[in-house]
Amino acid sequence: MSEEVTVQRQSAPGVPAEARSGFWLERLARAFAGTSVPFEMHFPDGRSRRFGQGTSSFRVMLKNRNAVRAITSLDQVKFADAYLAGDIDIDGDMLRPFELRQTLGDRHPLTTAWRFLQPLLFGQVRTNQAAITSHYDIDPDFFLSFLDPKTPCYTQGVYLSDTETLDVATIRKFDYCFEKLRLKPGDHILEIGPGWGAWFEYASRRGVKCTGISISQTSIDYLNGRSKELGYDWELIHADLLAYQTDRKYDAIVIMGVIEHLPQYDRVLARFESLVKPGGYVFLDGSACTKKYELSSFMVKYIYPGNHSFLVLHDFLDQLAKTPFHVLEIFSDRYSYFLTFQQWARNFDANRELVVARFGEFNYRRFRLYLWGAAYEFLSRSLDCYRMVIHYPGTDATI
Fold it and tell me: To the nearest 10°, the Cα dihedral for 387, 312, 348, 71?
């Protein structure tokens, strides 16, 4: 193993004997042997160790006994718990630590089992409500601290180059969506999960009537206030898509970054069929992977509880093939989602003082891990992202 070792022998007062010993140094040396990621680790007794070759890309600071126990457990959730508690700090290039995830285990069968027991015990609609409330029902200023300030959209933009701003990339996505849905002034669209209104503002400026359904009351309250401020007549309905009932038919449906919360594709497509006019269109995008319900224990515990699942494209298309819908276009936006998450993470770090003052250190730390971790997952191709245009043919359809 090629690694530089710097050991400071003085012992900090009150540090337990096990932390002063070298056993954890040896355990970590074995775990990170041969790592291609150069980094430094600083221990509470004053010792430090450098792993890998070359200039360190980040530092891990272990502040106390709990931090030492967490890192030597080689368990992702215990490490995250210690980081969220403030026992561990990380600074430097925040993408690089996630390259070490494969070294850390993630075996938490009770956490996994509870994900799937919830919908069986309480029903899918109630499970969705609990999951969405835990993630989204925070003061909007929390999310606005990292979303683009001009177009606060909580899904990826569409980038043509790494140097573009997120605002430019998001407007490009909206232009694409508007064109492919063949929208025109006077049309009426349904957005499932309108978030903080970025798409509503875009569509309303072009004369489109907007209705949104959401199970986040915080989002609905924010959008009602925003519609009054802007002078738009938005219709906001507190409803789960799977339970939403209406006789109305919409010209188009927009669902940006919400399919991850709706893993029962047959039920979702049945709702689309009941809600869109013959001849109408659906725009859908979402983060994706190849295995249904694959999610780290950290994400389940701290970010998306319940049976959240990234979009599984082959499963979705298999269910769609059983319906009258036709897929017109599918595009991969994986790299765009990396650039989007990277910008969100940078925005969030830039607003650290504001976030901590308003929402506490815990919420800052859990979303910091989430945003940088997701950026890495897209960069490393562990996650994909797709956008698609779906058509519901009418009797006179030419497509």
Answer: -160
